[in-house]
Amino acid sequence: MGWLWAIIVGFVLGLIAKAVIPGKQHSPLWLTTIFGILGAIAGNAIARALGVAETRGIDWTRHLFQLVAAIIIVFLGDMLYMATLGRRKHRV
After folding, report:
1. Angle at which helices 29-50 and 60-81 pack, to 10 degrees?
2. What H or E segment, with its residue span, contains residue 27?
3. At what angle do helices 2-20 and 29-50 cross, to 10 degrees?
4. Residue 48: partners with Cβ closer than 8 Å, 6 or more residues away
5. What is the mean pLDDT of each run of 10 residues along the chain (92 residues)?
6. Which of 25, 75, 77, 87 lies 20 to 30 A from 67 at CA?
7. Model confidence, pTM
8. CA distance 60 to 57
């Protein structure tokens, strides 16, 4: 069941990151979901390193780290996508 939650959280984080980043992102939805999953993993690692991974109640700090990491990864991943595959697809 853990992998299903990772996909759902990655999907939501990826969509929120796409909405926050100004301009149009050209990466497909499946790639945005993968970027969101990577953002969640990176955010968890950062929160764990800072000692705020587990708190009483809702882990707002951990979720904030996940969202910021997802925004950065979606932004950089979309730039990389457009530099490699995206240009070829948009020329056709």
Report:
1. 140
2. none
3. 100
4. none
5. 81 93 89 93 91 79 92 94 74 56
6. 87
7. 0.85
8. 9
Q: Which phi and psi angles does 86 have, rounded to 5°?
A: -60, -40
**pLDDT for the residue 88:** 66
Contacts of residue 26, defined as CB under 8 A and 6 or more positions apart, other chains included, come to 78, 81, 82, 86, 90
User: In Å, what is the CA distance from 87 to each residue of 27, 34, 52, 55, 79?
Assistant: 11, 20, 41, 44, 11
Work out the angle at residue 72's Cα, subtended by the Cα atoms of residues 52 and 18, and round it to the nearest 5 degrees: 110
Q: Are 77 and 35 in contact (CB under 8 A)?
A: yes
